User: Which sequence fits this backbone?
């Protein structure tokens, strides 16, 4: 997992923070499949992910409607239900509009 | 590290994605100090952090001006310089306005 290569703002970030329940229960396979599937959606810009206890996944989208459309994709809806029922102890989703972005060399 | 307890949107999220250089070089101590110091700033709402290779830290602020003021706090300016020079191979900062937030039980 590495940096998402996003365009200049504005664009949409979906910040997904979670704690996992015990056991894999098919999580790793489905998680990888969801990243692949997300990458095929219109308006997908990239995704960044890290977990050590708390997990944080930020997916980036061209706009809010692209992010909202991904939320409704059938296989993703099924994964979301399994997430609520089995994989996650708790989670929080925050939808945000990125207004500024910079790295060590300035704006990008 | 656990979930940030944020109020209903809108508020500001600063998404800091990074890769570390080799060695600690004072990073862990300074990192903990910066979290403590951030928590004392006006408009601080919370912070969430995870790292496994890629590191993602999201800090939450009442508004953009609160986030911008934290960027200018002297000890934080010093830490930012040391981050650029020593601790991070690369990083990206994205400032975003959270417009919607929900968990497994709906809006919160």
Assistant:
């Amino acid at each position: 997992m590495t940096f998402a290569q996003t365009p200049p703002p504005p664009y949409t970030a979906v910040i997904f923070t979670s704690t996992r329940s015990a056991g894999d229960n098919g999580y790793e396979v489905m998680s990888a499949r969801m990243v692949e599937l997300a990458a095929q959606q219109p308006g997908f810009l990239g995704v960044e992910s890290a977990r050590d206890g708390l997990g944080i996944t930020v997916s980036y989208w061209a706009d809010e409607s692209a992010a909202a459309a991904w939320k409704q994709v059938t296989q993703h809806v099924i994964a979301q239900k399994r997430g609520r029922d089995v994989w996650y102890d708790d989670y929080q989703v925050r939808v945000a509009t990125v207004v500024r972005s910079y790295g060590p060399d300035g704006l990008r």
